[in-house]
């Protein structure tokens, strides 16, 4: 089982919020690790995972913990817990986000706008949020509608959406985006021997919006930046967003990944991980604050993925 995490928040952080589905409190992360250990899980590196996929007769369940995007809290909050329990983990970096005080984290910009009930108009796309919208539509629903707009259009028109969203954030009195990692922090985690760095593209685009050449460029530029700052030839990749609809056509995926020097690539699909899977479309299990011991058990045993009771 490969676990997908994003942000790790403080123990007293609220469990609600429009982006709470990509957040996990640090105490809940540690509790999940302890629970998985009780279940007999073996925590492995990505290299160890690559080897174990093809091994037969493995009795002990295999787990790898991965983080996407490169948030600072992966270093400040998650890393101490992972060191304490001596757990291997990986961070799939978006190279444009690292050492960047104003990364284009549009999902958090949207959350700020909606929570502050700002009137919004994306005239170019015929989309607006009015006071009447807030009075009649739930904030969760508004967020999903905005998210759909950005997923479909932000990659082809990034300057327009950046200007709009940052302007609206200023109207709300300013907004501190989640901090991102620095290359110094990345290298410190690498030196521990527990951390591996993977590729999560240059700008975090939706793959279904890109041509073959654009896909290759997003991977290659990110990979080159990782090499430049860490000396590592990153050989593992995670798709931004990661669902089949977000990935789009997979007809040339194998050729793209091989050409870019990628050995394994991960989606966010919840499927059983085995040697029958395409190594460039491997599943991961999405965990957040809603994870329970039952959640972990059913994912670890494959019961959830196969649609059967955990027993």
Question: Can you give a write-up of this model?
Answer:
The chain has 311 residues and is of the alpha/beta class. Helices cover 41% and strands 14% of the residues. It is built from 13 helices and twelve strands. Strands 1, 4, 5, 6, 9 and 12 form a six-stranded parallel β-sheet that branches. It has a two-stranded parallel sheet with strand order 2-3. The longest helix has 19 residues, at 212-230. The chain is globular, with a radius of gyration of 19 Å. The mean pLDDT is 92.
> Unreliable runs, pLDDT <50, ≥5 residues?
none
Strand content: 5-15%
Helix/strand-derived category reads alpha/beta
User: The biggest beta sheet, please?
Assistant: 6 strands, parallel
What percent of residues adopt helix (DSSP H or I)?
Answer: 40-55%
Beta strands, count: 12
What are its keywords?
311 residues; alpha/beta; six-stranded parallel β-sheet; two-stranded parallel ribbon; 12 strands; globular
Write the layout of secondary structure elements.
Elements lengths: L1 E4 L1 E3 L13 E3 H13 L3 E2 L2 H7 L9 E8 L3 H12 L4 E5 L12 H10 L4 E3 L4 E3 L1 H6 L2 H15 L4 H14 L11 H9 L3 E5 L12 H19 L5 E3 L5 H4 L5 H7 L4 E3 L18 E2 L6 H9 L1 H4 L5
Parallel strand pairs: 1-5, 1-12, 2-3, 4-5, 5-6, 6-9, 10-11
Antiparallel strand pairs: 7-8
Summarize the structure.
The strands form four sheets. Strands 1, 4, 5, 6, 9 and 12 form a six-stranded parallel sheet that branches. The chain has a two-stranded parallel ribbon with strand order 2-3. The mean pLDDT is about 90. It is about 40% helix and about 15% strand.
